Amino acid sequence: IKEKHRNNYNLFESSISENFKMMLTMETELRKALKEKQFELHYQPQKNLSSGKVVGLEALIRWNHPEKGYISPGDFIPLAEKTGLIIEIGDWVLYEACRQNKEWQDAGYEPVTVSVNLSAKQFHQRNLVDKVKQVLNKTGLEPHYLDLEITESMAMSNEEDILKTLHDLRDLGVFVSIDDFGTGYSSFKYLSIFPVTKLKIDKMFLNDAQKENKAIVKSIIHMSHSLDMKVIAEGVETVDQLLFLAGVECDEMQGFYFSKPLPPEKLNNFFIEV
Ligand code: C2E
Ligand code: CA
Ligand code: CA
Ligand code: CA
């Protein structure tokens, strides 16, 4: 029995160190990816439901690994967050999204906003507002063409500095949206205090035709409008979902039904069609 225990222990220990090794390797590879420009941004169009026009694009990072091919953000953002590398990656994302959006505008396409996902670490950087300001200056993108997506849990607390950051960003003229709304602990109290411009209803509320979900979506939209916020539904995959959303006066939608996230060169066509 003792022997067996020892083996289990060794097994456990070695799996920890395996894991740890894997994380170290991945960290090294992430650094290399940054240096060697292996990251790309793909963009998913956001459509206004009453005008039918594309009004925004969400930038979603992809890691184009030289051997492994495309790696999705869910598989490396958490580690990047843990190691702090998310700051450098996030800086690149912010700059690249603004640069690309300005490039499209300069090429004569109808201007749209670009939405950039911020991780918690990024949002809590002391110099975030300065960074955003610098990126806008450097790329020449006007602030009202940038939308920053933060999650509920990042915003829903009453800390003074969070409120200040949000106000400073709004004073700068950029938009702030709350992503994955409804998946965390939303506090309606904070929602009324925070100067955010848009709520993104999480796709889980569209997943099934449950009556309760429909009622929840309806009330989120109603509440947002009375607080002067817009609502976008994400993860729209079917025409039924679309019809429902249009019926309850949801402002915008985003999802596979309309378009997958696409690399920039594929979006050019998209714009022309619009
Ligand atoms: P998210 O911000 O909630 O992004 C929406 C995710 O849903 C994207 O996955 C998108 O491709 C996917 N999606 C879009 N339409 C549909 C649909 O109709 N059905 C379904 N089932 N899925 C849909 P993706 O690109 O794999 O990104 C996953 C998450 O990774 C994002 O969730 C976001 O939290 C994070 N992420 C992506 N890019 C960045 C980034 O540049 N910075 C940071 N910090 N996080 C990022
Ligand atoms: Ca998002
Ligand atoms: Ca989301
Ligand atoms: Ca999500």
From TrEMBL:
Domain of life from the UniProt record: Bacteria
Residue span, EAL domain: 23-274
Protein name in UniProt: PAS domain S-box-containing protein/diguanylate cyclase (GGDEF) domain-containing protein
